[in-house]
UniProtKB/TrEMBL annotation:
Residues 34-53 bind DNA. Residues 11-71 form the HTH tetR-type domain. GO terms for molecular function: DNA-binding transcription factor activity; transcription cis-regulatory region binding. Keywords: DNA-binding, Transcription, Transcription regulation. It comes from the Bacteria. It comes from Desulfosporosinus orientis (strain ATCC 19365 / DSM 765 / NCIMB 8382 / VKM B-1628 / Singapore I) (Desulfotomaculum orientis). This is Transcriptional regulator. PANTHER family: HTH-TYPE TRANSCRIPTIONAL REGULATOR RUTR, TETR-FAMILY TRANSCRIPTIONAL REGULATOR.
Length: 193
């Protein structure tokens, strides 16, 4: 006779927790969010949250990701230039919006807390890098990009200027900047050079 240990995760409870964590992050900022506050808003116990997530950062990131995943879809247009523009422009537009402020707060917190940095890398940025990798690999297969590219370095080349402006200089990050960024990056990456 098979015995299941513990109760299965209720999708309704999970959704309530994720929604509560996302709403509280938007309303108050990451620093002000507490597991107690999430539990109260979701109508669950702290123990329920800790059973499924190791810490506040993990649940906030999952809440953020669940709420924003559809905002960061990347199409396959058949053009590496267009796909990269769409991906980077969508990210830039999102991250500069009030909803995207949660990510910049988590990046800042991650400078002082290695666990938070690991959580946002694993739950948010690594999946985004994987999308970028697929876009670049498709560009290589279609002959738009050089075959011998260092794909990880190419991704850094494309996204580093965006985060440099967002986190360091405070300069404008808009569609004009993104279009110029992609054009300059492709000068070194494309087969058209």
């Amino acid at each position: 006779m098979d015995k299941k240990i513990g109760r299965p995760r209720s999708e309704g409870t999970k959704k309530a927790i994720l929604t509560a964590s996302y709403e509280l992050s938007l309303e108050n900022g990451f620093n002000a969010v507490t597991v107690e506050g999430i539990a109260e808003r979701a109508g669950v116990s702290k123990a329920t949250i800790y059973k499924w997530w190791p810490n506040k950062a993990a649940v906030v990131l999952d809440g953020f990701f669940a709420a924003t995943e559809s905002m960061l879809q990347v199409p396959d247009t058949g053009s590496v230039r267009e796909d990269l523009f769409i991906q980077v422009n969508n990210l830039a537009s999102f991250i500069t919006s009030p909803k995207g402020k949660v990510i910049t707060e988590l990046i800042a917190e991650g400078q002082f807390d290695a666990n938070i940095a690991e959580e946002y890398r694993n739950r948010y940025f690594n999946p985004r890098r994987l999308i970028s990798r697929h876009i670049i690999e498709r560009g290589i297969l279609r002959g738009e990009l050089k075959k011998d590219l260092d794909i990880e370095l190419s991704i850094d080349l494309i996204f580093a200027p965006l985060f440099y402006r967002l986190l360091i200089t405070g300069e404008t990050v808009d569609s004009t900047f993104v279009k110029s960024l992609i054009s300059y990056a492709l000068m070194g990456l494309s087969t058209e050079a």
